[in-house]
Amino acid sequence: MKKFLLTSFLLVSILFIIAGCNKNSSTNQSNNLNENKLESSNTLMDKNKAPSTKESENLKEIRQSLWSNSKDNELKSFMNTWGQTMNQTYKQYSPNNNVDLYGLQLPDSVLNNNKWQAVIGNTPIVLNWSESGEEESGYSLVAVYSDAEAQDHLSKHVYFFTINSGVPKVLITSQNQGNPNNYLYFKETENKELRDGFSNIVNSSVTFDDAKSNFTKDEQLSYFISNYDQLPYKGYLTTEINGNGTRITYYVDESIPNDKQAISEAIEHLKAISLSVQQKVGEGITVSLKEPLETEYTLTLIDGQPTQANHIFGRIIQEVSNGADISRSESSDLIPSKFKGNWRIKNRGISFILEDDNSRMIFGHDTTELSNPRMEGEYLIFDSNFRVSGSAPIIYVSIKLTESKVGIISFENDRGEVVTHDFLENDR
């Protein structure tokens, strides 16, 4: 009996031990599962956090990468190559390491509220030296290059490489004189290779149109001029300051030919520039055409409409406004019968043959065609290309009859000068 009880006790004890082991094992497995779940959960949380942290770092990198030492070195290499293509030698400058531009120490003279003020057009701008290209306001000046040490007098250039609102801009000055306001005038460079080179180095995602509202009208005009690449004639656009504000002037290298078609085309070309600046900058901006050796503007437009013209351009504009077809050739119904026939200027050796299909002027042995006849009031007017040696070419001939066989004749040259003879006689 005792043996049976002992055996039963041992059996029960073993069962309890086994059950306890199983329970501990189950508990351990449960704990391990919980730990695994917690670890997995923490890992998942870390993974979820990672993109946010990485994104912030990327955004921070983008904000801080507008300018850096590596980009500064890229610009240095670019300026060395670009300078060689321009046959110029450029050196880099910075605060406390200035270039002498006709006695002006740059960049220090226009930084930190020093005596000189940088302006674009007639608008003062804020310039701050920057290592990152990210200043709170104004232009972040990240680099200065100049050829002043190598160039002849009056041929020196200073370039300010700037970033404003994320937009890279290369400003240039060659100013060699002072002024009462101590203004140092800058404009955006018109050299596309230089603009594009700096822009590619900065590699900003911000375009001028994105930040346009941050720039003044003068700054927008400067940008317009430097980027307008559709000039029909050799020459350049520039801004000029006058009592009425800033105007854009198109200086052409060669005079516009004094014929109707060429003048009409020039009017349309300037109109295209005027309408473009109206669209991209704003209304009410004066745009003028200036020919070489002329003291006055050839033509001036505002918002595509003429406001001033010299005598020759004004005549064409008047014809267009009156509905005349400026490209038409001679037509028989434009010469009234009372003008037809042979005429001569008494004692001058100049005669005229006015016919429907072949009007001409004869001076000595030279014959000049008279084209495009039209009536303006009492005057019959022809286009001409008659030239006397040593004199300006005659481009208009005007005839007015005072009696049936007597009249007056006027010659107008390409300078707008008019000579009139009142002894025209009819030889009919």
From TrEMBL:
Residues 46-59 have a biased composition (Basic and acidic residues). The keyword Signal applies. InterPro entries: DUF4767 (IPR031927). Residues 1-19 form the signal peptide. Residues 26-43 have a biased composition (Low complexity). Pfam families: DUF4767. Residues 65-202 form the DUF4767 domain. Residues 26-59 are annotated as: Disordered. The keyword Cell division does not apply. It comes from the Bacteria. Keywords: Signal. This is DUF4767 domain-containing protein. The lineage of its organism: Bacteria, Bacillati, Bacillota, Bacilli, Lactobacillales.
